[in-house]
What we know:
Layout: E1 23-31, H1 37-40, H2 42-51, H3 53-61, E2 67-69, E3 82-100, E4 107-123, E5 128-143, H4 157-169, H5 196-206, E6 218-225, H6 227-233, E7 246-247, E8 250-251, H7 253-272, E9 286-292, E10 297-303, E11 309-325, E12 329-345, E13 353-370, H8 377-397, H9 401-406, H10 412-426
Parallel strand pairs: 1-2, 1-3, 6-11
Antiparallel strand pairs: 1-9, 3-4, 4-5, 7-8, 9-10, 11-12, 12-13
Helix pairs in contact: 2-4, 7-8
Amino acid sequence: xxxxxxxxxxxxxxxxxxxxxxxxxxxxxxxxxxxxxxxxxxxxxxxxxxxxxxxxxxxxxxxxxxxxxxxxxxxxxxxxxxxxxxxxxxxxxxxxxxxxxxxxxxxxxxxxxxxxxxxxxxxxxxxxxxxxxxxxxxxxxxxxxxxxxxxxxxxxxxxxxxxxxxxxxxxxxxxxxxxxxxxxxxxxxxxxxxxxxxxxxxxxxxxxxxxxxxxxxxxxxxxxxxxxxxxxxxxxxxxxxxxxxxxxxxxxxxxxxxxxxxxxxxxxxxxxxxxxxxxxxxxxxxxxxxxxxxxxxxxxxxxxxxxxxxxxxxxxxxxxxxxxxxxxxxxxxxxxxxxxxxxxxxxxxxxxxxxxxxxxxxxxxxxxxxxxxxxxxxxxxxxxxxxxxxxxxxxxxxxxxxxxxxxxxxxxxxxxxxxxxxxxxxxxxx
Length: 430
C-alpha cells in the first residue's frame, strides 16, 4: 500500500470529551512507507540529527506536568495513556530559472521550499488517531544561478537544510555562503513564534487530551481543479506553465491538490478551532509512520477515519488584468476563482455527499510595480489563492463587509446562512 502520503493525514473531531489524563510526548515522526524515510525526507531527517530536534522539544516539555517524555524507563502505553508526536508530512524543493535581472544582468534562480507538519494525538493501545493539527509553509529564495545550475542538486545540502531550518525557526538566516557551521545559528533560544516548530510546540502544550467516544470526524474530503484551470496551469491559456507543478510536459496534479488541501485544512483547523482531516489523494487506509522517539524507534500503523462531515475545495480558474501604467510603473490585478462546499459524507466517491453549503468566491490581489521588476504571475496567483482560502475560512466566523462585497459570489444573506449551518455542524464555540 502505498506511497508517501504527504499532507493527507489527519484528523479529527469537534465532539470529543476532555479528560485530565496526561499525554506522552513520543517524538518526531515521518509519514511514509516503511524504509523510505531518508529518501523522501533527506533534509529533515538529516536536520533532525544535526540540530537534535527530538531532545530540544523534549527539554521544552520536560517541566510540564501534563506531558510525559516517552522512552524506556518511563510511563508507557501500559497505563492506557494517549500519545502525541510531531509528524513531518511533506518536504519539497522547487527550482525555477527566471532569466536575467534587467538591472545587472545576473542570472536568477528561484528556489521554493515547502514544509508540512502535523501535531498528532493518538491512542497507543488501539492505534486510533484522536486529533491532528496541520501546518504548511512555503518560502522562496533567489539565487544567482544560470539555467544549467538552476536545479535542486546544484545546491549544497547544508544550504537546503538551513533553509528548512529557517521555516522551522521562523528566521531568515540561510544564504548562499552558508557553510557546514550553520547549526550554530539555530538553538532553542532563538525560536520565533513565526516558525513552524514554535507554532506546533504551542499546540502540543495547549492540547487537551480526549476520549475517543462519540466523535464525528470532519475533514477536507475533495480538492478538484476544473479543466479550464488545468489548461491554464499547463500553459495552454494566457500564461506560461506553472513552474512548481508542471514538468516534463505533465502537470503534477497530486502535489498541487495536496498543497491546496493543506492550506485549506490549516485555516479551517485554526479558525474553527477543530481538528481537521486534511486532504490526501491516494488509496488505502493504513498509514505507515516511522517515528523517532527520545531513545527508541517504532513503526506505527494508524487508520484513516471515515468522515462524518466534509469540506470540498474547487479551483475554477485564473485571470490577470492590467489596470494602468506610467512611464516607469505598471499596475496589475491577479484573480483566482475558487469555491468551497460542505456536507454530510455518504461514501468515498466524489458524488457521495449530501451538500449543505456551497460558497463560490473570487479573490483578487492588486499590485503596483516598476516595469523593471521581475514578476512571475504564478507566484502572485499562489499568494492570492492562499489569501482567499484564509479569508473564506475566517469569514465563516465573522463576515467582513468589504471582503463579502468584493469577493463573495453569493449574497450576504446566503453566506451567513451557509456559515451558520457549517458552524453548527462542526460544533464551533466562540
